Amino acid sequence: MRRRVVVERKGLVQVSDTGALEKIIDEVLAANGPQVESYRSGKTQVFGFLVGAAMKATKGKGNPKLVNELLRKKLEALQG
């Protein structure tokens, strides 16, 4: 119980709210149009850059697994 209080007070709580992460990912995709186009044209190594941009936007607090999943889904939707 004590650790949780310290984590919360220091602002170290991981963001796992899907809605909040989707909004951040949408903003990252909108701000990085050239990289999104590169990804869409087959340069999948750009995915790491976009994950990094999303993690930076969450100040490192985003759940990495969830960020990866949501970002991949958004990019796949853009492919179709």
Specify Rg, calculated over alpha carbons.
Answer: 14 Å
* Total helical segments: 5
Mean pLDDT: 88
Assign a percent range to the helix content: over 70%
The assigned structural class equals mainly alpha
Shape: elongated
Number of strands: 0
- Most strands sheet: none
Topology of helices and strands:
Elements: H1 2-9, H2 18-31, H3 33-40, H4 46-57, H5 64-79
Helix pairs in contact: 2-4, 2-5, 3-4, 4-5
Can you walk through the features of this model?
With 80 residues, this protein is mainly alpha-helical. 72% of the residues lie in helices and 0% in strands. It has five helices and no strands. It has helices spanning 2-9, 18-31, 33-40, 46-57, 64-79. α2 (18-31) crosses α4, α2 crosses α5 and α3 runs antiparallel to α4. The longest helix has 16 residues, at 64-79. The chain is elongated and about 50 Å long. The protein starts with a helix and ends with a helix. The mean pLDDT is 88.
Keywords:
80 residues, elongated, 0% strand, single chain, 72% helix, mainly alpha
Question: In a few lines, what is going on in this structure?
Answer:
With about 80 residues, this protein is an all-alpha fold.
